[in-house]
Amino acid sequence: MSNYVIFLGSLRKESTNRQLAEAFIHHLPEGDTAAVFERLRDVPFYDQDLDVPGQEPDAARELREAVRDADGLVIITPEYNHTAPAVITNAIDWCSRPMGSGVLMGKPSLVMGFTPGPRALVGATAVLREALETVQAKCVATDYTWGDAYTLLDGRHPKDVDEVVGILNKAQAELAKLADATPDRVDPRAGGGIGAE
Ligand SMILES: Cc1cc2nc3c(=O)[nH]c(=O)nc-3n(C[C@H](O)[C@H](O)[C@H](O)COP(=O)(O)O)c2cc1C
């Protein structure tokens, strides 16, 4: 039984990636749960002056707690300018500190996404994998992304599209395997991250 937190990279109401998150939740194996962290838009830009133990901004503290308490992280996002949307990289920055004991250390992680463009998020996934590996998250071997997503969906919700559901099942099985193999607590003394405190 695993419980996952989802970072959603698109903030717009009609987001196809929000629909993909809904499909991810809908098709989880029985007993597993997942929820979108809905306060990403409230998390301020990372600022070391704000990151004072016990006085972190509320949304940043909730973000860290949500990731800490989850068995895995699922990033579901579009690509912006061949990189990842700022809400996602900002969340990773907050979760990467304190250096050496950030909540992403050892966290099983999966990246998925829809884009209407033809290149299927190659820029965003490269950036996210680099960042997640830097903070010593445990990434699923494959990123699961779709280009030309509006053509694929053709007005349907992704939870009803067989091709999407098949990939969701595969991605969920890979994430569950990593989560099952991960001890409850990761030793922060193992290090991780870049930069001086
Ligand atoms: C600032 C901005 C930059 C974008 N850059 C890219 C891009 O580099 N590659 C791409 O395929 N789509 C790009 N798009 C299109 C987005 O993928 C699309 O608008 C949308 O966000 C798809 O996700 P959503 O339906 O979940 O919002 C960009 C959109 C915006 C607003």
From TrEMBL:
Gene3D superfamilies registered for this protein in UniProt: 3.40.50.360
Molecular function, one GO term: oxidoreductase activity
EC number(s) from the headed UniProt entry: 1.-.-.-
Domain named NADPH-dependent FMN reductase-like: residues: 5-143
Keywords: Oxidoreductase
Enzyme class (EC, first level): oxidoreductase
The keyword Lipoprotein belongs to this UniProt entry's keyword annotation: no
A GO cellular component annotation in the UniProt record: cytosol
Signal peptide: none
InterPro entries assigned to the protein according to its UniProt record, in alphabetical order: Flavoprotein-like_sf, FMN_Rdtase-like_dom, NAD(P)H-dep_reductase
Name of this protein: NAD(P)H-dependent oxidoreductase
